[in-house]
């Protein structure tokens, strides 16, 4: 379905606006598929993201502020997500021997088993969702999106500069 059909637009906006709308619609479509997969395993997308970060981190674990920095969905309350995953027995907090004020978050054996069970379904989902593109197209699209994302971050930084101040 075209953008114009999906949003029932009488006239297409400028190409840049079209791209932004396409990105938002695509994100929502991917999220819906991810939600179904993770719900079948008792997780939200944000909880999976925390587990993914912790699993990929150092053996001694990540402090919560580091997990927060690495989140894809940065609006999530990481402390609350960790609390819920800890109640489920998937994560645990351990004291940092160098700084007792900091606790590190590590996967429990139960959390590791869950992540291992999710590896194949997550890979299958990604393969299924991108099967309309060749590997080269996936890589090229990834590079284009990275370039766009970096430019957006730069624009955000530029907006933080007070008016009249040269950058």
UniProtKB/TrEMBL annotation:
UniProt keyword annotations, A-Z: DNA-binding, Transcription, Transcription regulation
Pinpoint the HTH marR-type domain residues: 16-150
**Entry-linked InterPro entries:** HTH_MarR-typ, MarR/SlyA-like, Tscrpt_reg_MarR-type_CS, WH-like_DNA-bd_sf, WH_DNA-bd_sf
PROSITE patterns (alphabetical): HTH_MARR_1, HTH_MARR_2
PANTHER family, alphabetized: TRANSCRIPTIONAL REGULATOR, MARR FAMILY, TRANSCRIPTIONAL REPRESSOR MPRA
Provide the protein name.
HTH marR-type domain-containing protein
Species source reads: Geothrix limicola
